[in-house]
User: Fold this.
Amino acid sequence: MELFEKYQQGLSYAAFIERYASDVHMQRWRQMQEQVELTPAQKALLGSFTRRMPVLCLAGAWCGDCINQCPIYEHFAAAAPGIQVRYLDRDEHADVQRVLQINGGNRVPVLVFFSEDGSEVARYGERTLSKYRQMIREQAGPSCPTGLVVSKDPLLVQVTQDWLDEFERVQWLLRLSPRLRQKHGD
Assistant:
């Protein structure tokens, strides 16, 4: 399967939410979008990105992990115009879901990073290390998580940084690519 072709079929963030989110889910997407905040240093880093970075995001509008993470990518794209995220619905694109399974299961969100000319660079998903650390503390301990999201949640700050670290890693991989350096003369 050619995943870059699937990327080209993907929807913008707004179109994805409009098409797939129920009214209740749409409200949750908006609330999370408002909670994500990038620091000036994070914005400066993203502003330094020079390589175009198409990113395919396999997601579900109903998915709590997607609601909690996909708005982060949109903040990155706003700060770095070279980041171009396109979204595919997991259920509508079952063929992509099969290719992007993690640990033998259907997971979302899963991101596939591409070079400007469509070469796959990296895959990452569905939760970051900070989220897994929190989950192991909660699920291996004596209490169960409530599932409630708290405004200004420190986990959101950590997850945002985890995702930024991956976007940064891919950008530097693209910047240092001999093939792309030759193409761009840098």
